[in-house]
Design brief:
The protein has one domain: Tetrapyrrole methylase, N-terminal domain (Cobalt-precorrin-4 Transmethylase, domain 1, 3-Layer(aba) Sandwich). Helix content is 40%, strand content 22%. Helix 3 links the parallel strand 3 and strand 4.
Length: 207
Amino acid sequence: MLKQISRKVGAVCIPPTIFIVMKLLWFTYRKRYHYIDTPIEGQCIAVTWHAELLVSPQVYRKFRKHQKTSAIIAQHYDGELIARTFSFLNIIPLRGSSRRGAKSVLIAAIKALKEGNSIMITPDGPKGPRYSMSDGAVSLALRSNLPLMVVNYKPSSYWMLNSWDKFIIPKPFSSLEIYHQIIDINGMEKDEAKEYLKNKMLIYSVA
């Protein structure tokens, strides 16, 4: 009972705190953008690693300030905190993952795409392994004929948490080398596309 109450209070109080910290840190960073590909407008499948979620959604919103966007987020408690934090960036959660609720979240994602939304996915979430590649992003891109927008970054100085994803927190006033890629996988087989996307993402990721 006490745990349930604690979680309910946390679900209300923690997300705005996380968002405030995210924004404060964001304003301290010295950011340099590397456009590997020219930014495009309109719908896309936005992809980033789970470890980079502190910064990448803010980069996405810089590129696409007004694009309607939904994010596939796991159903567990940490996912609830992420979903509520993303709401401050006007990103709508679709709850489910490859482990739980996969079919229902896929249907919800397809519906969101038909309504003009972009979809945001962490292909190694919600439980890894780190830098693994689930089917979700590639399957949606192939089904919808939409490009994949990939955001990665490398900070000059950072903390790395002892979590499965080795979550990255760039230190205040550090430099961020931010990389933007647009990847087209049309015509590829799913396994080929997954390997291709993974290799492209790993080029600009923290080792």
